Amino acid sequence: MVSVRLMHMNSIIEKYLLLVEKISNTTKAHKSFGTDVDIYRSEIHIIQLIGDRGEVFISEIARLIGVTKGTVSQIVSRLEAKGLAEKSVDKSNNTRQLVQLTPKGKTAYRAHVDYHLRKHREMECYLASLTEEQSLVLEKFLTTAHEMIEDHQ
């Protein structure tokens, strides 16, 4: 006979795996975020990073999101082609490229921020309702899940 605890653990794992699958499927999804171009998930998160900082070096973006400078350069090139971002050479070090948003990129940035504010309000209310102990358990679960994903890449 399967214990109730084991059934509960299996249910949690199943829901977690379904969530991971749903998240991975969103990488192909796109929105326009108030512009006239399709913006993919990887692109909007680079836009978010740039918008939060005003301007940022390609190498810093790569470091912050844990990918290569080449990957960031490719994404930034797509953003430039769509009129969302522009690169310039750092005046103090001409080997570094600085990225900033264009007016269209700023429109996408603001729309993305608003989108997250609307979509995350429910989650924030839920998290605020948790006790400190419940929050710590949830945080530990997410940390462990993140480490497991890192180990399987």
TrEMBL record:
The superkingdom of the source organism is Bacteria
Gene Ontology terms, MF aspect: DNA binding; DNA-binding transcription factor activity
State the Pfam families in the record.
MarR_2
Q: Which residues form a coiled coil?
A: none
* Protein keywords: DNA-binding, Transcription, Transcription regulation
Q: Where is the HTH marR-type domain?
A: 9-147
**Name recorded for this polypeptide:** MarR family transcriptional regulator
Organism of origin: Pseudodesulfovibrio alkaliphilus
